[in-house]
Amino acid sequence: MSTLKVPDLVPPPEQDAKRLKEAFDGLGTDEKAVTWVLGQRTASQRQLIRQAYQRLYNESLIDNITSELSGDFKDAVIMWTLDPAERDAKMAKEALKKSKSGVKHLQVIVEISCSSSPYHLAAVRQAYCALFDCSIEEDITAVVSMPLRKVLLRLVSSFRYDKELLDIEAAASEANQLHEAIKAKQLDHDQVVHILATRNFFQLKATFERYEQMHGSPIDEDISSVGKGDLVSLMKMVILCIRCPERHFAEVIRTSIVGFGTDEAALNRAIITRAEVDMKLIKEVYPIMYKNTLEDDVIGDTSGDYQDFLLTLTGSKF
């Protein structure tokens, strides 16, 4: 489901590091070489390049990207070059620094918790502690108010079983429990939070399907009927990230480019975090949802080296 195009014969990391050094040295920067090298390497390969660069030149690749590139292209390349757990930990930290109304700025925390593997979530939590000398749970507790805090704390501290294991009877039982809580407008009920935070993704998808079969409407629609508050928005986001993450990220991309101006941070986050995960699925659902291809919308709202880099990650260049 990845759209990353990696050459059949990948050069040694030392050779890639040398090519990047050459791209940075001299008059001007060879931005196309940066895209050519980093845009066609997996996360593990990119980390080997970083290590080789440091070893060969006693310089940080990230620091040199920062000094040699600029604008949105620089931000995207840095985000792509970071270790994925380090990248997501930094995005979570930035989200928790923002004192905004609503829940949009908390999207990244829901995405990490509900559309990533349990191993990646654990790695992000570890990276967060290493980078910031505190846990993500501590920061959520400090800056997020109830009842959002209760939900987010359970989500980030869970470790779900990652295999396809289904209990159909449990799915029916828990679908009823979710329905009763929603009907009572208790979206943060302990059992609701427990189910959403601990069950494996296959089990939850079965539960949501059973919910619709038993009660006649999708669970997200019933949640919407509760009202329009922040908790409703957060819970709908959780449900969508679990049930159909490709639709969630298609929505993030579309929202980032429609209207006045572009939300480059959201656009980068969606494309960069999903390029090696499910970008192929996102590209498939995007025109169904919005009548345009993802590539056409990216081309219409970006330009230059930044555009080339994003299109490379979506498998549309090189």
List the helices and strands and how they pair.
Layout: H1 13-24, H2 31-38, H3 43-57, H4 61-68, H5 71-81, H6 84-97, H7 107-114, H8 118-132, H9 136-143, H10 148-156, H11 168-183, H12 190-198, H13 201-215, H14 219-224, H15 230-243, H16 245-257, H17 264-274, H18 279-290, H19 294-301, H20 304-313
Main features:
318 residues; mainly alpha; 20 helices; 70% helix
Strand residue content: under 5%
| Shape estimate | elongated
Number of helices: 20
Sheet with the most strands, sense and barrel status:
none
Mean pLDDT: 93
**Can you count the beta strands?**
0
Order of helices and strands: HHHHHHHHHHHHHHHHHHHH
- The helix fraction, in percent, is 55-70%
Structural class: mainly alpha
What does this structure look like?
The structure is a single chain. This protein is mainly alpha-helical and 318 residues long. The chain is built from 20 helices and no strands. The protein has helices at residues 13-24, 31-38, 43-57, 61-68, 71-81, 84-97, 107-114, 118-132, 136-143, 148-156, 168-183, 190-198, 201-215, 219-224, 230-243, 245-257, 264-274, 279-290, 294-301, 304-313. Helix 4 (61-68) packs antiparallel against helix 5, helix 5 (71-81) packs parallel to helix 20 and helix 15 crosses helix 16 (245-257). The longest helix is centred in the middle third of the chain and has 16 residues, at 168-183. It is elongated and about 65 Å long. The protein starts with 12 loop residues before the first helix and ends in a 5-residue tail after the last helix.
